Structure formats: structure tokens, C-alpha cells
Amino acid sequence: MRHARPTYVDLRTVSFKLLVKREGHARRRVPTLERITMAKKMKRRTRRLWSKEDIRELKAHSRDKTPVAKISRLTKRSALALRQKAWQLGIALGHRR
Q1: 41 lies in some domain
Q2: What residue ranges of the chain have pLDDT lower than 50?
Q3: Residue 79 · residue 67 · CB < 8 Å
Q4: Which residues contact 75 (CB under 8 A, 6 or more apart)?
Q5: Helical ranges in the chain per DSSP H
Q6: Closest Cα to residue 32, out of 64, 8, 3?
Q7: Minimal CA–CA distance to 58: which of 93, 17, 9?
Q8: How many degrees, rounded to 5, is the angle at CA 84 between CA 88 and CA 56?
Q9: Is residue 28 within a helix (H) or strand (E), and if so which, with residue range?
Q10: Which of 17, 42, 50, 91 is 20 to 30 Å from 31 at the Cα level?
Q11: Domain for residue 94, yes or no?
């Protein structure tokens, strides 16, 4: 007796594609594209303008020689943004000078 090939149900009509094995009468469900979880979207960064208070705080950290990573956590700005603003203001930043 010859075994038949597995048959597939059309994806447009059924939410699951059913793979039927006729030899063992076993049935296995394969998830379709709708059921596969998609990767989460990344948060979009929002630009925040530098207030006078932010600049005053950055200068104080520069005088105290606070590490950039710590300033970054405290001000919730990236290290690159802090270094760029310090360069614009003409001040040194970080503990290594």
C-alpha cells in the first residue's frame, strides 16, 4: 500500500495550517503568520531641550569631576548627549582629564 503525501489546508481560510500525516494518523498544528509573536517595537527617543537648571547641574558635575556614566543616570540623558553639550559649553566632563 502506498502512503499519501501530507496535505495542507489553505492559509486564507483557516487560522491554523494543519499538517496531516496519514501513515500514523497523527495530527500536528503549525502556527501561521498571524499567531507568531512579532518583535516589540523600540521606543522612540524624544528630544529634550537643555534648561538653565540642566546646564547649571552639568557644570556642577564638571567641577566635582563626577563620572559621565553617573551623570547620565542622574540626568536621564545619554553619555553622548552630555559630552556634546559639555563640548558646546567649553567645559571638561568626567573624572579623567
Answers
A1: no
A2: 14-21
A3: no
A4: 54, 57, 58, 82
A5: 52-64, 68-75, 79-89
A6: 8
A7: 93
A8: 65
A9: strand 26-31
A10: 42
A11: no
Pairing of strands 16-21, 26-31: antiparallel
Determine the structural domain holding residue 7 and report its residue range. 1-33
d(CA 83, CA 81): 6
Burial tier of 93 (Cβ tally within 10 Å: 0-12, 13-18, 19+): buried
User: Residue 30 contacts by C-beta under 8 Å, 6 or more apart in sequence?
Assistant: 16, 17, 18, 19
Are 57 and 85 found together in one domain? yes
In total, the chain counts a number of residues equal to 97
Closest alpha carbon to 4 in 28, 20, 26:
20
Q: Does residue 45 form part of some domain?
A: no
